[in-house]
From TrEMBL:
Top-level taxonomic group: Bacteria
Coiled coil: none
TM regions (residue ranges): 15-37
GO CC annotation terms, alphabetical: plasma membrane
Name of the protein: OmpA family protein
Lineage of the organism: Bacteria, Pseudomonadati, Pseudomonadota, Betaproteobacteria, Nitrosomonadales
Alphabetical GO biological process terms: regulation of protein targeting to membrane
Keyword line: Membrane, Transmembrane, Transmembrane helix
Biased composition (Polar residues): 436-446
Region (Disordered): 418-462
Length: 1089
C-alpha cells in the first residue's frame, strides 16, 4: 500500500512538474508575445517591407493577444521613394488591421480566421508622366513569374472580412486632374473551402463614392463548388463620367463633356472544370446629361442626350451565346459649335432588341423607332447642305475628304461598328491617326513584362452582317431652306413618317420602304416600294399631291436664271431605277403642275405662269430615251416673250447652257506622252432644219391642249420697243411623233381685238421636218408697228389695220410660203431719219396698191431652203418686201401684180404689125387696167404708142392694101345707095375679097403685066397682092401716125369703155422701137403716175 501511495505521489509530482513547465512555457510565451514579439515583429516588418518595396515602411504598433489569438496592427504606412519630390507623403496607409484567428484552426488543421477588419485604408496613386506611375517599379516587380508553386488544395476559412472608410486618390500630373474614391466599405461574411462550407453562398457587399457619387456592389458566390458560381450586383448612381474624359478610349477630336452614369446590373459567373467560363451580364444602365463634342468633322458639333437607357436582357461576355440588348435614348440634340439652337433633335430613339451573335458574326436589330426627329437643312451659297458638314470627316491636315472618300466610308460603315470582340476600324484618316498617336495620350503603358497578348477570335475573318427588321421614323419634322435664293420661304415637311422593313446594311436584299409626309401644311408625299443599293435598284409607287416647288429650285444651281415664285407639283404613278452604266430609269403615271409662276428678278417681271398643266399617260424611260405622253393640257397659261437687244429670246435663257470650253492638255515630261488638245468649236448654224435624235430615241406626244393662253411679246431689239399681246389662245397640237402628222388648231386674239387662227399639220420628230401651216389674223392695228417701219423704211405709221392669210409649207428642206396681206386705211406718218433706213418709194407704192376704199391687197409668195446655212425667214420676208417696193419705180405693174394676177402684162398691149386695131387679148388687159385705175382714183396713166421699123413697115403696107380693097366695097355700096359704116367695120368674104382686090389692083398706078393682046393680065389674088405691096410706099410719117393711132385707140377705149376720166390719161410722144430692143415694137406702153 505504501508502495502504491508512493507511486501515486510520484505520478502527481510528475504531473505537477509538467503542468508547471507548461505553465511556465505559456507564461514565457505570453510574456514574449506581449512584451517582445510585437516589437520584434514591428521592426522586422518595417525592415523587410522597406527593403522589398524600396520605400520606407513604418508601423505605429502591433498587438498580439495569444490567449485570444488576435493580431492588431496600428498606424501602418508605406512612404514614397526617397528620391520623390514629395518627401513625407505616404503611398499606402491604414489606421488599424484586426485579425482574429480561431482555435478551430488546430482542429481543422487549416487556418480559420473569424474576423479580418481593415480601418481607414488610404492609397495614393500618382501618374507622374505620360508612361510613369509612382508604383511602376512595383508593377514590374510583381509581374515577374514566381518559382513557387501554388498549393491549390490548401483549405482555409475567413469570416467577417471588412474594409471601413477606405480612401483612394489618383493624382494625374500629366493630365493635371485628381480623382478620389472615398467612403470605401467592403464586407464579406465568409470565404471557406471546407467541405462543409462549399455549398454555402458567399455574399459580399461593397460601397463607395467615386468623386462624390455613390457606388455599390452586392453579390454572392460559391468559388469552390463544381461548377464555380457567382453573381454580382453593380449599383451606382450619377457617376460623373466627364472626370474620366481624358482616359476614355475615344479618338482624337472627340471629347466627353458631361455624363452621369447610373447602373443596376447583375453579373452571373459559371465555370465548369476544363471549360471556358460563362459570364452573363443583365440589368439596366442609364446615362444622363450626356454631352459629346466632335471636332473631327467639317462643322464641329456637340451631341446632347438627356437620358440613355441600355437594357441588358442577356449579354454573354464570353461570346458563347447571342447577346440581347435594349436601347432607349431621350431628347437627343446635335448642336453646331457656337450656336444655341440644335441642328438636329430627336425626342426618342427606341430599339426593342439588339441581338449580337459573335459566332455567326451577325447583328440583328428589331424595330428601331426614331420619334419626332426635327432638323433644318440649309443649302448654302456653295450649294452644299450644311447638315452634311456635321458628318463630313476631315483628314489629319484638317481638310475635308472628297465625296468619293465619303462614299467609300459609307460602304465600309458595317466594318466600323464597334462590337464585342472586334476592334473598331475608322475610315477617317484623322481618327485613325488619333488612335495611333495622340497629342494627349492618356494610356498608361506598363513594362514589357506586364503586357499580355489577347488571342484573337477564330472567326475574325468572317465578315459581320447587320440586319434591321424595321426602322420607323415617326412624326418627324424637316425644314429645308435654300440660302442661294432670296426671300424664299422654307419647305417644311411635317409630319414625316418613314418605315423601312428588312434592312440589310449591305444593300443586297431589297428593303421595303414606306414614306408618308405632309409638305407646307397642304402638300402630301406618299411612297411605297422596295429599295436596294448593292447594286442600286428601286421600285416605288409614288403619290405626290400639291408639293411646293419654290424651295427646291435651288438644286438647279446656276442653271436657272429666274425664280420660281410659286408652283405645286402632283404625281401619281411609279418610279423604277436600276443600276447600270448609265443608270436606267422608268417613270409612269400622271403629273400635274399647278399655279406655276416663273419670275424674272432682274427686270421684276413674270416670265412664265399657268394655272394648271396636266400630263396624262406619262411614260419616260432612259437609255435609250423614250418619252411617251398621252395628253398635255395647259390652262390659263402666260408667257412673257422678249426679244432682247442682242437679238436673243429671253425664254431661251431661262435655263443656262454651259459655254463651250477650250481645254488643252500638255504632255508632261514623259517622252511617250501624246499631246491632246480638246476644243469645243463655236456654235454654227445647223445645216438642216430638223430635230436630229439618236435612232433609239423616241418622243411621242399624243396631244397638247391649250386653254385661255396669253403670250405677251416685247421686242426690245427695235427702238422704240414694240409690244403685242396674244390672248385667249385655245386649241390643240398633236399628235407629235415620228411618222404621224400632228394637227395644229389654235384660236386667239391679238391685243384682245384682232382674231387669230392657226391651223395645219406638223411632223417635228421625223428625219425631215414637215410643216403645212395656215395662219389667219384680222384687223390688227398698225400704229404699234411704227418701230419696225421707222427702222426699216424710215416712216412711222399713222393709221391702218392689217389682216393676213398666210400659208407656210416645209417639205424635204424646201420652204414655200404664200402670204396674202390686206391693209385697210394704211397711212404713213412722219418721216424718221435713221442711218440704217432703206430708202424706198413708199408714197408711189401705196398709191399704186391702195384702192378707192383705202384698201391694199398684196399677194406675196416666198420660196427658200431651210438647208441653207444662211437661211433666215425674217430676212427672206423683208427682202421680198424691199424688192416689191423697189420695183414700183421701174415696173409699177409688178407691184400691182401682187394683187392682180398677170400684173406684169398690164404694162403694155400689143398690135398686129401695121395695124392700130385692139385685139381681144388686149381688150382683157385694158379691162383689168381700167379696174385698177377706177379703184385708185389718185393714179394717172400715161400712154405711149410704139412701132417696129421692120414688122410695122411691112405690116403697114398690108394694112394699106386692105384699106384699098375695102374702099372698093365702100364705093360700090355708095353707088348702089347702100348705107355703109367705116372701113374698119367692113368685112369681106373670100369671094368678095377677090372681086374687090382685082378692082383695087386695076386702079393702081404702076406697070402691070399684059397678056398677048396687050390687055392687063388677070392674075391670081396672091400675085396681085404681091405687086400691090411691092409698089406701096411707106413714109416715116406713116409709122409715127401708126404709133399715135395705137395710143389713141387705147386711150379711147379706156375713156369710152373703161370709164376713166379723160383728165387722168395722157398720151405721150410716140416712139420707134430700136432693132436691138428685146420688146415687141408694135405695142402700146402704159406707165402710172
Amino acid at each position: 500500500m505504501t508502495t502504491t501511495k508512493s507511486h501515486r505521489f510520484i505520478g502527481y509530482k510528475r504531473l505537477g512538474i509538467s503542468l508547471g513547465v507548461i505553465a511556465i512555457v505559456i507564461i514565457l510565451l505570453a510574456a514574449i508575445s506581449y512584451f517582445w514579439l510585437p516589437g520584434y515583429a514591428k521592426s522586422q516588418l518595417e525592415i523587410r517591407l522597406s527593403e522589398f518595396l524600396q520605400r520606407p515602411v513604418t508601423v505605429a504598433s502591433i498587438e498580439i493577444k495569444p490567449h485570444t489569438l488576435e493580431l492588431i496592427v496600428h498606424g501602418f504606412q508605406v512612404g514614397v521613394k526617397t528620391d520623390s519630390d514629395e518627401p513625407g507623403e505616404s503611398l499606402f496607409s491604414f489606421n488599424r488591421l484586426y485579425i482574429d484567428l480561431s482555435i478551430k484552426s488546430l482542429k481543422q488543421r487549416a487556418p480559420v480566421i473569424t474576423a479580418v477588419a481593415l480601418t481607414h485604408p488610404k492609397f495614393r496613386l500618382i501618374r507622374e508622366t505620360k508612361d510613369q506611375l509612382n508604383i511602376s517599379d512595383l508593377l514590374e516587380k510583381f509581374s515577374q513569374p514566381s518559382d513557387e508553386k501554388d498549393d491549390d488544395g490548401a483549405q482555409f476559412s475567413i469570416s467577417n472580412i471588412t474594409i471601413q472608410e477606405g480612401h483612394f486618390e489618383f493624382i494625374d500630373r500629366h493630365m493635371q486632374t485628381d480623382h478620389q474614391i472615398t467612403e470605401i466599405n467592403l464586407g464579406i461574411p465568409v470565404i471557406a473551402n471546407f467541405d462543409s462550407a462549399l455549398e454555402h453562398w458567399i455574399e459580399p457587399h461593397f460601397s463607395a463614392k467615386i468623386n462624390g457619387s455613390p457606388f455599390a456592389l452586392e453579390g454572392k458566390l460559391r468559388p469552390f463548388t463544381v461548377p464555380q458560381e457567382a453573381t454580382l450586383a453593380l449599383k451606382f448612381n450619377k457617376i460623373d463620367l466627364s472626370e474620366f474624359d481624358r482616359y476614355a478610349p475615344l479618338p482624337q477630336g472627340i471629347r466627353l463633356l458631361s455624363g452621369f452614369l447610373d447602373s443596376d446590373l447583375l453579373v452571373t459567373f459559371t465555370q465548369e472544370p476544363d471549360q471556358a467560363p460563362i459570364i452573363v451580364l443583365t440589368g439596366n444602365t442609364k446615362l444622363q446629361q450626356l454631352a459629346i463634342k466632335d471636332t473631327t468633322v467639317a462643322a464641329p458639333y456637340r451631341t446632347n442626350v438627356k437620358e440613355l437607357n441600355i437594357g441588358l436582357t442577356q449579354v454573354d461576355l464570353m461570346r458563347n451565346n447571342p447577346s440581347q440588348i435594349k436601347l432607349k435614348m431621350d431628347q437627343v440634340e446635335l448642336t453646331r459649335e457656337g450656336e444655341s439652337e440644335p441642328a438636329l433633335s430627336l425626342a426618342q430613339l427606341i430599339i426593342d432588341r439588339i441581338q449580337i451573335d459573335t459566332k455567326l458574326h451577325r447583328i440583328t436589330l428589331e424595330e428601331t423607332v426614331l420619334d419626332r426627329l426635327n432638323t433644318t437643312l440649309r443649302r448654302e451659297s456653295s450649294g452644299q447642305i450644311d447638315l452634311a458638314r456635321l458628318f463630313e470627316p476631315i483628314d489629319a491636315q484638317g481638310q475635308t475628304q472628297t465625296q468619293a472618300q465619303i462614299q467609300a466610308a459609307k460602304v465600309e460603315a458595317q466594318k466600323s461598328i464597334p462590337i464585342p470582340g472586334r476592334k473598331p476600324t475608322y475610315s477617317n484618316a484623322g481618327v485613325k491617326a488619333a488612335e495611333n498617336k495622340s497629342t494627349q495620350d492618356t494610356s498608361i503603358t506598363p513594362s514589357a513584362h506586364a503586357r499580355k497578348e489577347i488571342p484573337s477570335s477564330n472567326n475574325e475573318a468572317t465578315p459581320w452582317t447587320t440586319q434591321i427588321k424595321r426602322i420607323k421614323l415617326s412624326a418627324a419634322r424637316l425644314s429645308y431652306e435654300d440660302l442661294t435664293l432670296t426671300k424664299t420661304p422654307p419647305m417644311i415637311i411635317d409630319p414625316l413618317d418613314i418605315t423601312l422593313d428588312n434592312v440589310d446594311l449591305k444593300g443586297i436584299t431589297p428593303l421595303k420602304l414606306s414614306i408618308n409626309a405632309r409638305v407646307n401644311q397642304r402638300g402630301q408625299i406618299k411612297a411605297d416600294g422596295s429599295l436596294s443599293w448593292s447594286p442600286f435598284a428601286t421600285d416605288l409607287a409614288l403619290n405626290l399631291d400639291t408639293v411646293d416647288l419654290v424651295s427646291l429650285q435651288g438644286w438647279m444651281g446656276d442653271k436657272l436664271n429666274a425664280l420660281i415664285s410659286s408652283g405645286d407639283v402632283s404625281f401619281l404613278g411609279n418610279l423604277k431605277a436600276q443600276h447600270g452604266d448609265p443608270m436606267k430609269i422608268l417613270v409612269k403615271g400622271e403629273a400635274k403642275l399647278y399655279n406655276l409662276n416663273i419670275f424674272d428678278p432682274k427686270n421684276t417681271e413674270d416670265l412664265l405662269k399657268w394655272k394648271k398643266m396636266d400630263i396624262n399617260g406619262l411614260n419616260v424611260a432612259t437609255h435609250p430615251l423614250r418619252i411617251d405622253i398621252k395628253t398635255v393640257r395647259f390652262s390659263d397659261f402666260y408667257a412673257r416673250m422678249i426679244l432682247l437687244p442682242n437679238g436673243d429670246l429671253n425664254l431661251v435663257h431661262i435655263v443656262q447652257i454651259d459655254k463651250p470650253l477650250d481645254v488643252e492638255v500638255e504632255a508632261a515630261k514623259n517622252t511617250n506622252a501624246v499631246e491632246v488638245k480638246v476644243t469645243t468649236p463655236d456654235i454654227k448654224p445647223i445645216d438642216t432644219y430638223q430635230i436630229k435624235t439618236p435612232e433609239e430615241t423616241l418622243i411621242r406626244i399624243g396631244q397638247v391642249l391649250l386653254h385661255q393662253g396669253n403670250i405677251n411679246f416685247h421686242d426690245r431689239f427695235i427702238k422704240p420697243n414694240y409690244h403685242a399681246n396674244l390672248t385667249g389662245l385655245t386649241g390643240q397640237i398633236g399628235p407629235l411623233y415620228p411618222g404621224k402628222f400632228g394637227v395644229i388648231d389654235i384660236q386667239g386674239t391679238i391685243d384682245k381685238t384682232a382674231p387669230l387662227k392657226i391651223n395645219g399639220k406638223i411632223e417635228p420628230f421625223s428625219d425631215n421636218l414637215f410643216l403645212d401651216l395656215n395662219a389667219k389674223v384680222k384687223d390688227i392695228d398698225l400704229p404699234p408697228f411704227s418701230p419696225y417701219s421707222g427702222k426699216f423704211v424710215g416712216y412711222a405709221i399713222e393709221k391702218g389695220k392689217l389682216s393676213a392669210d398666210v400659208n407656210y409649207q416645209i417639205e424635204n428642206g424646201a420652204l414655200s410660203a404664200d402670204n396674202k396681206i390686206f391693209l385697210d386705211q394704211f397711212t404713213l406718218g412722219e418721216k424718221i431719219d435713221r442711218e440704217d433706213t432703206v430708202s424706198l418709194p413708199l408714197d408711189l407704192a401705196i398709191t399704186l396698191l391702195k384702192n378707192r376704199q383705202g384698201e391694199i391687197d398684196i399677194h406675196l409668195p416666198l420660196k427658200g431652203s431651210i438647208n441653207d446655212p444662211e437661211f433666215n425667214l425674217g430676212d427672206i420676208i423683208f427682202q421680198a418686201f424691199v424688192n416689191l417696193i423697189t420695183k414700183a419705180i421701174t415696173s409699177p405693174f409688178t407691184l400691182l401684180g401682187s394683187a392682180f394676177e398677170g400684173g406684169e402684162e398690164l404694162s403694155e398691149i400689143t398690135f398686129t404689125p401695121g395695124f392700130a386695131n385692139i385685139e381681144d387679148e388686149s381688150l382683157q388687159r385694158l379691162q383689168t387696167l381700167s379696174e385698177i385705175l377706177n379703184d385708185r382714183p389718185s393714179l394717172e396713166l400715161e400712154i405711149s404708142g410704139h412701132v417696129d421699123p421692120v414688122t410695122d413697115h411691112e405690116g403697114l403696107k398690108l394694112a394699106m392694101l386692105q384699106k384699098k380693097v375695102k374702099a372698093q366695097k365702100l364705093a360700090e355700096d355708095v353707088k348702089k345707095g347702100i348705107a355703109s359704116s367705116t372701113l374698119a367695120d367692113i368685112t369681106l368674104d373670100s369671094e368678095e375679097y377677090s372681086k374687090y382686090l382685082e378692082m383695087a389692083y386695076k386702079k393702081e398706078d404702076f406697070e402691070k403685066p399684059k397678056n398677048i393682046i396687050g390687055l392687063t393680065k388677070s392674075l391670081p389674088d396672091a400675085e396681085m397682092e404681091q405687086l400691090m405691096l411691092e409698089h406701096t410706099v411707106i413714109h416715116d410719117n406713116d409709122l409715127e401716125v401708126l404709133a399715135e393711132n395705137r395710143a389713141n385707140a387705147a386711150r379711147s377705149w379706156l375713156i369710152e369703155n373703161g370709164g376713166i376720166a379723160i383728165e387722168r390719161i395722157f398720151v405721150v410722144s410716140s416712139h420707134e422701137t430700136k432693132i436691138d430692143e428685146q420688146k415687141s415694137g408694135n405695142r402700146v406702153e402704159f406707165s402710172l403716175k
